[in-house]
Design goal:
This protein has about 170 residues and is α/β, with parallel strands linked by helices. It has helices at about 15-25, 35-40, 60-65, 85-95, 100-105, 120-135, 145-150, 165-170, and strands at about 5-10, 30, 45-55, 55, 75-80, 105-110, 115, 155. The chain folds into two domains: about 5-115 and about 155-170, Rossmann fold; about 115-155. A hairpin with a 2-residue loop joins strand 3 and strand 4 (about 55). It holds the Pfam family Flavodoxin_5.
Length: about 170
Amino acid sequence: MRSIVIYKSQTGFTKKYAEWIAEELGADIFHVSEANVDKLQNYDTVIYGGGLYAGGISGAKFITENSDSLKGKKVIVFATGASVGRAEEIDGVRNKNFTAEQQKYIKFFYLRGGFNYKKLSTLNKILMTFLKWKLKKKKDLTPDEQGMLAAYDHPMDFVEKKNIQELVVYANS
């Protein structure tokens, strides 16, 4: 079974997971900018990874817009983010990014990544600055919100190789 890992990574967390997954599976790996639908035809398993930005998976349109070409293949999408990844959050990400029909054949995984404000694009820095201002105005912050504010000055990295094991087992099944 031939596998391909495609990823889009702005801060490096997703890229690290993609590299580990490709290594574990003996898969080919490409940045999404190098991938195209014709390349997918040579693979039985297609794995896509992207970071979470306001609940959207960066670059996931590559998978959703090419869904007709993916029929009959094992399709896996993983997203990385700074949050713990509670079940309701993961369900929200899945429902925001994939239709009910797509969810029937796309297996979704959340892998905890991290947050590094300095590595964000200018646009994402602006958006995150607005979030920071909003959080600072709030009187009662949740522990997650407190952690997010702290992360602006102190990058967080929760990337661990053990986090890919469930995805790797599924890909090999």
